[in-house]
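Below is how a single chain appears once it has passed through the pipeline. First comes the sequence as given, then the structure the pipeline wrote out for it. We keep one example in the README because the format questions we get most often are answered faster by looking than by reading.
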Amino acid sequence: MQQYRALGSMLCAGVLVALLAMTLTPAMSQTADTKQTVTDGKSVSLEYTLTLDDKSVVESNVGKQPLIYTHGTQQIVPGLEKALEGLAVGDTKEVTVPPAEGYGEKNPNALQEVQKQLIPPDALVVGTRLQGQAPDGHMVYPRVAEIKDDTVVLDFNHPLAGKTLHFDVKVLAIQPGQPQSQDPTPKKH
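Resulting structure:
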């Protein structure tokens, strides 16, 4: 009889340990799984500094408003977006983005020569940014690349085309993304 009681006590203890393990393990794994990471569809807030190969700072939002974008929707350059995948809040990373994954290589076909009289006289300085409207209606911002006797060469490449970009980023926040509409047709306003 004594041995049955001992066996019963051991079985009860074993069952109790098994039950505790089953209830504690999911709770512990839930805590680990709730850590938000950068994945497609998430709204991500970043602090960043963008520099070029010569260490010149192109842009920084450190101490200012964060950059907020939806991951996986091509709102930022592809090389940076790819490098941020899987990061968590508080993570920092240095990312080097080659031109092909940034703003592309310089396109020689994006240079256009126009008559000098079409450019305002005060804009006839190499490096001046102009603003105009393309035939399809979207805004363009060419840069004066060269001034000749009767013409001006305008460069329609992005100012960072052909450049390697160096980002120093910190993930500030990650939020669930906005639910996507099931209807893929654009709405008229």
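Confidence is low (pLDDT under 50) at residues 1-33, 180-189.

See the next section for the split statistics.
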